[in-house]
Prior knowledge:
The chain is an alpha/beta fold and about 150 residues long. Helix content is about 20%, strand content about 35%.
Amino acid sequence: MRAVIQRVKSASVHSAGKQLGAIDQGLLILLGIEQGDAQDDIQYLVHKIARMRIFSDKNGKMNLSLQDVLQARCLVVSQFTLFGSLKKGQRPSFERAAAPEFARMMVEMFVLALEKETHTRIEQGEFGADMQVQLINDGPVTLILDSFIKDL
Length: 152
C-alpha cells in the first residue's frame, strides 16, 4: 500500500463536473493499493499518517501532527497509478496494482480506520472515476509512505 501525502492549504476532487470532496487545511492523500495488501498495511499507514509531525507549531517548526491541529482534515483519493511501472517500454504497466474489487474494499477500510484514528470525517473521491484534483500545496510538503518499503 502506497500513499503520497501532501500538506495542503486546501484541496478538492471533482468528477463529471461535480465536487466529490473538499477540505481546507490538512492532508491530501493519494492512495494506491497493491496486490497482497492486508489489514496490517492499512494499520501501518493510518498510524503513521495520524502521527506525522508535519504541521508547523507557533515557532514555525514542523512539530504538530494531524491529531494536534484541530481544524486539519484529510481528503483521500484512490490512485492505482501509484503502482505503475515503466521498467519496460514507454507505457506503464499496472501489474502490481490490486484488482478493482479488492482495491475498493481496501480504500474503504483505510478511510474508516483513518476516521477512527483521527476522530474526524474523511473526505474522498469516487473509486474508479475519472477525477480532477485541485490543491494548494502548503510548504510544499510532500511525503511518500509505502507499507512494504518502510524506510521511504
